[in-house]
Structure formats: structure tokens, C-alpha cells
Amino acid sequence: MTTTGSADDEQHEDERPFWLTEPCPAWCDRLHHDWEPIEDRRHQSDLVGHVELSTMPADKVINGDNTFDHIPHCLELRMDQGYRENSPRLHLEEHLCRNGEFALTLNEAEQVATTLTRLITMGRTGQTNG
């Protein structure tokens, strides 16, 4: 995975897999390969937003030395598009996929809204996250 620019910066046309007939969108941070199964033939952005949900109870995690850590619930926001889809989709995931319902403060909701607006702009204009 690249960290700046698009994957196309590092993967030139002559190196593209057979199934990728057009360059990646500018926001795609993934390198593609001929051998990828159909369900993995996707353009994916890097993580665009990470919002810690401060009012939700943290999860208790056991470390290898039998001590405990508390991990807060977080929303992660990114973009994804199947190689034959005509537009990207915005993904909101809970960090570590532990929960399906979220309680956001107004400030947290505002951070999510700002990040969603950035993702929508990236998807419509082809601009990168940088």
C-alpha cells in the first residue's frame, strides 16, 4: 500500500493487472495484482478519518503479560470502489469491528461530518486526501 498519491503513481500502465483497464482514482492507495480474486479487485483509500467515541464504555483487553488495557470505541472512515462499479462508497467502521451502534457527542458527530464531506469531495473530484 502506498502512503502518498495514488497507487497508480507506483503502478504504471504496463504493470497494471489485466482486469484493471483504467488508471486508479487519485484516492486509491492500493497496489493491484493479476492474481487477486474478483471480490478483492477494489480501489481503496487509506484511512481518512478516525474519531474516538469518548462517551462509550471502553473495551477491556488482556495483554500477553495478563495485564489489562482499555481500548476506546472509534469510528474509522475510508472510501472503497469495486473495479467495475461506477462510483465509490464511503465506509464507516467501528475500530476492531466490536459494535454496530454508536453514541456520538456533537463534537464527534461534527468530526464525522467533516470527514464524510472530504470523502465525498475525493470521490466526486478525484482529489487525493493530502
Automatic annotation (TrEMBL):
Q: Name one Pfam family in it.
A: DUF6907
At the top level, the lineage of the source is Bacteria
Matches recorded under InterPro entries: DUF6907 (IPR054202)
Q: What is this protein called?
A: Uncharacterized protein
Organism listed in the record:
Prauserella muralis
